[in-house]
Amino acid sequence: MAIEIPTDLTPELVPLSWLLGTWEGQGRLGSGGAGSEHFFQSATFKQDGLPYLQYSAESWLTDEHGTRLRPLTVETGFWALGRKLNEADVGPGLVPAETVPALKSADEVEELRNTNGGFDITATIVHPGGIAELYYGQIKGPQIQLATDMVMRGSQSKEYSAATRMFGLVNGDLFWRWDVAAARGNELEAHASAILKKVA
After folding, report:
1. Binding of heme b: at which residues (predicted)?
2. What residues does 189 pair with on adjacent strands?
3. 115 contact partners, CB below 8 Å, separation of at least 6
4. SS3 of 135, please?
5. Under DSSP, is residue 118 helix (H, G, I), strand (E, B) or coil?
6. Quick one: pLDDT band at residue 163, thresholds 50, 70, 90?
């Protein structure tokens, strides 16, 4: 499947460009075995000229035929290449960025390539219930691996200590898996997985 790169994409988002768009499809909770509940998800990655992708996803519990039963949850966040921010970047808060991107060419982006041949990335994802995840990981071609560096929980939040996520583009479909440590022992367990198709 050919990947179209928008002409207005800041250079450092090119490695992430295959995520752009809206993806929809079915998934299973837990390990996906017999008895695991079904869900439908719609996930969107978009950009607005700044050096990060905006991410949002909505999920609904479904029956085995895909009929939506009720809302499951939502999450939102920001994905970017891992690099030190400078005066060309917006923030903190409303401090404006310079008018040119921090990395102006493909050659400058290539300098960020890591020893594994990919790029370090960071993702911040926020959930209802007072939970925010800070992930670090790697993107290498159409594959992403993320692991939490920190999970921030509010004083009334449910127990949740760590997570990993994997994403991959396979024959034009977005496959993902999410493992979570949210029970006694703080061990990572299969939480959910899905196969999403790009919406035209």
Report:
1. 158, 191
2. 180
3. none
4. strand
5. coil
6. very high
* Rounded-to-integer distance, Cα 74 and Cα 41, Å: 9
pLDDT per residue as tens digits for the range 61-77: 999 999 999 999 999 99
12-67 tens-digit pLDDT: 999 999 999 999 999 999 987 878 899 999 999 999 888 999 999 999 999 999 99
Q: pLDDT above 70 covers what percent of the chain? A: 95
For 24-78, the DSSP string reads: EEEEEETT--TTPPEEEEEEEEE--SSSSEEEEEEEEEE-TT--EEEEEEEEEEE
Letter for the amino acid at 174? L
**Cβ-based burial of 148 (10 A; exposed 0-12, middle 13-18, buried ≥19):** buried
Distance between CA 150 and CA 180 in Å, rounded? Answer: 13
pTM confidence score: 0.92
191 labelled ligand-binding: yes
46 annotated among ligand-binding-site residues: no
b/e string for 65-92 if b means 16 or more Cβ within 10 A?
A: eeeeeeebeebebebbbebeeeeebeee
Segment (H or E) for 81: strand 68-81
